[in-house]
Amino acid sequence: MADDIAMRASGAPPPHASDASPPRASGASPPRASGATPMLAAEELAKYFDVSRPLLQRLLAREGRRILRAVDGVSFEIPKGTTLSLVGESGCGKSTVARLVVGLYQPTRGRVLFDGQDLEKARAASEQRRRMQMIFQDPYASLNPRWRVRDIVAEPIRAFGLTRDNAAQRERVAQLLAQVGLSPLDGEKYPHEFSGGQRQRISIARALSSNPEFLVCDEPTSALDVSVQAQILNLMKDLQRRLGLTYLFISHNLAVVRQISDRIGVMYLGRLVELAPAETLFNAPRHPYTRALMEAIPDLDMTGRQRVPVGGEVPSPISPPSGCPFHPRCPLANHRCKAERPALIPARGTPETVVACHAVEEGRDGAAFTPMDQRPPGPRIGTTATAL
Amino acid sequence: MAPILDVRDLRVEFPTRRGTLTALDGVSFAIEPGEVLGVVGESGAGKSMTGAAIIGLLEPPGRIAGGQILLNGRRIDNLPHEQMRRIRGREIGAIFQDPLTTLNPLYTVGDQLIETMQTHLDLSGGEARQRAIGWLEMVGIPAAAQRVDSYPHEFSGGMRQRVVIALALCAEPKLVVADEPTTALDVSIQAQIIALLKRLAREKGTAMMLVTHDMGVIAETADRVAVMYAGRIAEIGPVREVVKDPRHPYSTGLMASIPPLDRRVEHLAQIDGAMPRLSAIPPGCAFNPRCPHVFDRCRVERPELLETGATRAACWLYDPASEKQAPEALRHG
Amino acid sequence: MALARLLDSDLFWSFRRSPVTVLSALVALVCVLGAALAPWIAPHNPFDLASLNLGDAFKPPAWDEIGEASYPLGTDDQGRDMLSAIMYGARISLLVGVCAVLFSTLLGVTIGLVAGYLGGSVDGLLMRIADIQLTFPSILIALLVDGIVRAALPREAHDQIALFVVIFAIGISAWPQFARTVRSSTLVERNKEYVLAARVIGLSPLHIMATHVLPNVLGPVLVIATLNLGNAIITEATLSFLGVGVPPTHPSLGTLIRIGNDFLFSGEWWITIFPGAALVAMVLSVNLLGDWLRDALNPKLR
């Protein structure tokens, strides 16, 4: 049996035993919050990268093409004014989703609807682009080092021709800087004169300068120290409240995600394995991977529960395991899990959660997980991999 | 018990054209056998530099400008390079964030382990190989007897970091300096590595200095914690006290700003402002411009580490002679 | 204000700390000023045939017993003042060198930027061309270009545009170095998030290349350009020495060395040694400046 798995995992071309029963997640997608058009909807979004070696080397080594399935059929909706977070470990495809959404990548399959419009077609319209902006992870790389802050912040204003009047533009930049907690005088400075947290504020001011309704935030706090992370999270929540923004928030840090999200999607190897309202996800995580992630977070109460780290490591997305991608590490895996890719369907018991797990569907996910807030006493902080 | 590592009043300076920057100032601590000391702080606080100073690998032009570092009672801060190189490896093991910088890609992991052991221990080739396999097993590498002849690139990131740990420990050093050993790893692997480090320190009676920005890692692994700020130790004490009941206003703010996993809070506690640059450390207490409890003395006089009960904190609120005393809220978490 | 900032900068600080660099800068400055201002400060006009006196031919330098003070570095076979000839010659050498470097910089930076930013097959094609060209020595390419132009044009027409041909021939041989450097910096910059931010708002690749990427890849270009200036001057001198460079009516340092070479063994050493020394001083000082610039701009070596 082990051989069977090894063969499937390393065989080329990548086996897709589950192709016979393609998941139709979109049909059972998360219920819409209301009848209103969501700000953003991803439908069966996929992005494959060709990571083959150059042709000549490939021929010499008698290799086939190597296709990396960074995102492999992801569907979700983000109602206006809310935050959806995508979490997962490195290589799970969450950042690729962010880049697909803002159009930095073209999807291999599926589509993105922005306010009901197919983004592929609407992309040409600068009005659609104006309504969508992005905040990046690395505050040291996201600002052009040779530009003054005022020019950085004004770039989208100029690009979209929002104001031709220089005085009005200066006024607007000053107002934006004030809005993110900087001094209007900071506009004259260069990025290197600022700390990481201040740079991230500049990045946010730039994103806000085109009056967007939707912000894609790709790990916006993970390069920051923890006390600064708190400042930025507070600022982002505050701006969302005041400006009615919609966020797609990408992070690997569950504790951060809990503070900011309305709903959370957990990704593993390019797929959503669980999507649920934030509180439900933390109180009743259903997918074995979600549970494992929560278990892996260090506990401040050292005398606390016995930690059972999930064994093994994330497999390569170039040759993902057959069936459920998590099955080689999953304590609940059986034959069906190896053969059949589970669809994202409402979970038994917590119908507002959609989960892609045969075990949950069949009701063999065993003893309920102890929710975070019912654990033995002692404060828990989820700081693993949080910049402190 | 005599400490294995004793750092006294360590001062590290970086001469630059615009004057000398003091990167570490008056850093003192000790680590006993089998003890794990966690060193935490925000980027630029000097935690990695403390580790680098101890293992004698300060980046030039940085230099130790004052104080002493004693390893088993012997000064090692003023040794010539060649002697220090021998001490690294034999008496001090180092684990860095990126395992690839530590492993030589041209040799199998077995060769590297065997060479390290034979350089520092009196072992025959066969014995060394047996021990190498033993170490790989101990750090949790499956099928160690076969993997011992693999090259570093044949291991995954998590497995490589295990090899690095084996390499750092195989010469049975008395002190291990681990600088962000889990930062480059995924959450699920981190937990495995942390558990491993802690177990090995206990079993071998090794003193360990664990430098990380990750409070969770510290909480799980360390016995005591030093919180650093602007090149100085702000607070040092048992991990439980420092994490749950910090006394220094900076540690308090730091712990409070960590987002909780077990609940959602509308407004996270935050410390306004940012840590000063080395070129602009304010006089008195380095934290005074951001401190909610600041009073006159903090702006002029630099506080030494003072007893607060369970921990020692560099804060004038804990000097009975100060005109202002720590409020109840600080004294009890 | 701008001057004060320059004097306070790290670059100026590292400049002042290195005596060799300061000396090179002084030598280079003397060369450039002497060359640029030759028509106004040279003691004689070596191109004014009317003022030439064959009786003054082969005068040794002024410090020799039979030397004359009005010809400090002696005269050549035509009675031309060597110092003046060197100043005018350096003027040509420098003109060709600077123009050739500007040409190759422009070409190389554009190609490198496009290849690096667009990537894919465009990148593959451009870089293979660069690879192929790099397998030929630059002097060979220059000779080849010059030969083609000579064969294609009648002699008079060629003489008229000879200067441009040399500039083109030297410039074309150096672009791959610029292109490769710019390409590799561009590959780094284009994945930085500030470039992504510009792409998100839909700015055109051309706009992003010009306003975002270009200013951030110019540092190493400056270094290569400086180092290449020395090379270009040497290449020009070599071509002229071989007699295929600038026309003899406008002798460059290379031409002077070639002419003087005929007299080296008959005792009139100054006719070739002084232009040679001027060439060495100019190229060496420029190269030393380039080396310093490379180290000063490389944070790893600081």
From TrEMBL, chain B:
Membrane topology per record: Peripheral membrane protein
Main subcellular localisation: membrane
Domain of life, source organism: Bacteria
Official protein name in the record: ABC transporter ATP-binding protein
A biological process term (GO) from this entry: peptide transport
Residues annotated as domain ABC transporter: 5-255
Subcellular location, record wording: Cell inner membrane
Family to which the UniProt record says this protein belongs: Belongs to the ABC transporter superfamily.
Entry keyword Secreted: no
SUPFAM superfamilies: P-loop containing nucleoside triphosphate hydrolases (SSF52540)
CDD domains for this protein: ABC_NikE_OppD_transporters
One cellular-component annotation, GO: plasma membrane
GO molecular function: ATP binding; ATP hydrolysis activity
Keywords from the named record: ATP-binding, Cell membrane, Membrane, Nucleotide-binding, Transport
InterPro entries: AAA+_ATPase (IPR003593), ABC_Ni/Peptide_Import (IPR050388), ABC_transporter-like_ATP-bd (IPR003439), ABC_transporter-like_CS (IPR017871), Oligopep_ABC_C (IPR013563), P-loop_NTPase (IPR027417)
From TrEMBL, chain C:
Superkingdom: Bacteria
Record-linked Gene3D superfamilies: MetI-like
Predominant location category: membrane
Pfam families: BPD_transp_1, OppC_N
Residue ranges occupied by any ABC transmembrane type-1 domain in the UniProt entry: 90-290
GO cellular component, one term: plasma membrane
PROSITE patterns: ABC_TM1
Compartmental location: Cell membrane
Topology of this chain in the membrane: Multi-pass membrane protein
Coiled-coil region(s): none
Transmembrane segments: 20-42, 92-119, 125-149, 161-178, 269-293
Single GO biological process annotation from the record: transmembrane transport
Keywords: Cell membrane, Membrane, Transmembrane, Transmembrane helix, Transport
Family: Belongs to the binding-protein-dependent transport system permease family.
Name of protein: ABC transporter permease
Organism of provenance: Siccirubricoccus deserti
